[in-house]
Write a structure and sequence with these properties.
globular; seven-stranded parallel β-sheet; disordered N terminus; alpha/beta
Length: 174
Amino acid sequence: NPGPEGRGDRDGEGHLQRRLEPPRWIDVHHPAHVHVFAPVRELLLARGHEVDVVARDKDLTIPLLEEFGIPHEPLSVERGRAALPLEMSLRFARLFVKCLRTRPDVCLGIAGLSITHVGATLGIPTLVLTDTESARLSLRLHLPFATAILTPRCWEGADYGERHLRYPGYHELF
């Protein structure tokens, strides 16, 4: 049965029984991302969208999500630089399965570490924010697969053509 916002009801285990509209996804990799995406999530919810948040257990990310009262699903745990390839592989697999189940209509994240490859594989649009021109490896590995790339106007990195949107502001000040 559709819920009051037309998005569907959840059963006792939290699984959506019926969804009339696909969710928007927010991928949170770092504590700073919580501060960037909390107002975006609130805006989407206020407009009647369902928003699912997936997270990486890194530093204070999970406690911050809990402090903000943001429901989330941890998909991976930071275990250091040497374990990063394994963590990202597991994260990709978990995201892929979750996307097959929920079929979000768009994924939003910073750097696009996981969502861009899953989105490209499954045909799900991905919006990636980035402001770190010096993260050359990450930019080369993930941004070619993003549907849209959002950067501050002051961005001095590559121009990504029609997929590149510049906004008047910053998402990190230090």
